[in-house]
TrEMBL record:
One of its GO terms (biological process) is trehalose biosynthetic process. InterPro entries: Glyco_trans_20 (IPR001830). It holds the Pfam family Glyco_transf_20. CDD domains: GT20_TPS. This is Putative trehalose-6-phosphate synthase. GO terms for molecular function: alpha,alpha-trehalose-phosphate synthase (UDP-forming) activity. It comes from the Bacteria.
Length: 470
């Protein structure tokens, strides 16, 4: 930590790692970049279960200037909090998937109690002038619980995933309690203005809030600032990864296998929000409608398994493998396999090499907070032969990357024709679009994301206006 700076305390469900291991998850990537630079305390779940659960001994590991302190969960907490409320109720709902969201009061109860216990374990570790930054949908109640424990310093919250419109969010039985709990933070941050506006609309329509200015809202005696902080990547670092020997090996391997064929890649956790089924159908339509691509393109989908204990994820994997099998069965020849799907993890350097070998990257989520893969792909390109990004209009990254080919991921024809356009794009256009995107990725790095959030948290004004009726 630099002199005179207040200590940063970050809280997220999973903590670390700080090094370049194969970790599939945007939050870990964004936060570890930020913490490595500034130092501080990173607090969260150890990833282990033990009978004592959140009452377990805290474990602390110090790396460089970052202390990582974690506690366990017990089996009931893991089920109710993580698999249950966080990933069966909140994740689908906030990604606009009311059809997949399940609500039950037992998991809601466990979710609230885990938030309360994490706060009770964290509170004694805090100094008054620490800056506490809570991350994501696992910890909506953590700020209000920390207040209950008597912490009076600054607390900010950042939501990495979308905030759905109030028409959808109100289906959640605890929606009012959750948004009221969010008002305990001094600052709430969102990836895009759509998310921020959805949150404000909930406060106004459901809780009778009043806007004090574009960024500040008052609900009862609480005033909270709601702002947009699009998360970025460590762009210069990623660019260096892409020319590392490890990246080079992967790039070369992929180029050797592809030969004259153009390489298409997709890199996503295997999650229904990422639009993988629709993407595979789009690729199939490309081969159907533009037959000149048969034998001349190959599609590699890297899709590390995620939350595979949950039914919706098991079903997705089955569907994708079946679809890949169907497409290969329909179009493959003795010397050509159109589509390949891999569920293993890669180091960040290896992934950078894979991106660099690709002519086209498909980032087509049905809904995504930001999507860091889009930004990584841009940073990894060779300036002398840059690839084309096909990007969903429903990814948060769309706001910063208008130079990508923007598609509606639900439209098979749209995905197929964007792919065709990307594969046949003249060099000058490829280069021009990539330069625009590169500029945007370098203008909004993880460093800027972190610094702007902390500065806004330090300056957030939570006071009631003088003329406010009491
Ligand atoms: P995610 O849904 O996990 O993140 P994303 O932003 O794309 O989505 O981040 C995925 C990260 O995992 C990327 O850094 C990627 O390189 C890495 N990764 C993917 N496959 C990998 C593999 N096989 N091996 C190793 N690493 C792999 C959530 C939100 C997003 C938001 C981020 C950050 O859903 O919308 O952008 O948080 O806020």
């Amino acid at each position: 930590m630099a002199d005179g700076q207040r200590r940063l305390v970050a809280v997220s469900n999973r903590v670390g790692p700080l090094n370049d291991e194969g970790k599939a998850g945007g939050l870990a990537v964004g936060l570890s970049d930020a913490l490595k630079r500034r130092g501080g305390l990173w607090f969260g779940w150890s990833g282990d279960t033990s009978e004592q659960g959140t009452f377990s001994e805290a474990q602390t590991e110090v790396q460089d200037s970052v202390s990582m302190t974690t506690i366990d969960m017990n089996q009931e907490e893991l089920e109710g909090f993580y698999f249950g409320y966080a990933n069966r109720s909140l994740w689908p709902l906030l990604h606009y998937r009311l059809d997949l969201a399940q609500f039950d009061r037992q998991s809601e109860r466990v979710y609230r109690s885990v938030n309360q216990r994490f706060a009770a374990r964290l509170a004694p570790l805090l100094d008054d002038d620490d800056i506490v930054w809570v991350h994501d949908y696992h910890f909506f109640f953590l700020g209000s619980e920390l207040r209950q424990c008597g912490f009076e310093g600054r607390i900010g919250f950042f939501l990495h995933i979308p905030f759905c419109p109030p028409e959808i969010f109100t289906a959640l039985p605890a929606s009012h309690d959750i948004v009221r709990a969010m008002l305990a933070y001094d600052l709430v941050g969102f990836q895009t203005d759509t998310d921020r506006r959805n949150f404000l609309a909930f406060c106004i329509r459901e809780l009778g809030g009043q806007k004090l200015s574009d960024n500040r809202i008052r609900v009862g005696d609480r005033v909270v600032t709601a702002r947009v902080f699009p998360i970025g990547i460590d762009a210069p670092g990623y660019e260096r990864f892409a020319v590392s020997p490890e990246a080079g090996e992967h790039e070369e391997m992929l180029r050797d296998i592809a030969g004259e064929r153009l390489q298409i890649v997709g890199v996503d956790r295997m999650d229904y929000s990422k639009g993988l089924v629709e993407r595979f159908r789009g690729f199939e339509r490309l081969l159907e409608d533009y037959p000149e691509n048969r034998g001349n393109v190959q599609f590699l989908q890297v899709a590390p398994l995620s939350r595979s204990e949950l039914g919706a994820y098991v079903e997705l994997r089955r569907e994708l493998e079946e679809l890949a099998g169907h497409i290969n069965g329909r179009f493959a020849t003795l010397d050509w396999t159109p589509i390949q799907i891999m569920t293993r993890g890669f180091t960040r350097r290896a992934l950078a090499g894979i991106y660099r070998a690709a002519r086209v990257c498909l980032v087509t989520p049905l809904r995504d907070g930001m999507n860091l893969v889009a930004k990584e792909f841009v940073a990894a390109q060779d300036p002398d032969d840059p690839g084309v990004l096909v990007l969903s209009r429903f990814a948060g990254a769309r706001a910063e990357l208008p130079d990508a080919l923007i598609v509606n991921p639900y439209s098979t024809d749209d995905v197929a024709s964007a792919l065709q356009r990307a594969l046949t794009m003249p060099f000058d256009e490829r280069k021009r679009r990539w330069e625009g995107m590169r500029e945007a990725v370098f203008a909004g790095t993880s460093e800027i994301w972190c610094d702007t959030f902390i500065e806004a948290l330090e300056n957030a004004d939570a006071s009631l206006p003088e003329d406010a009726p009491q």
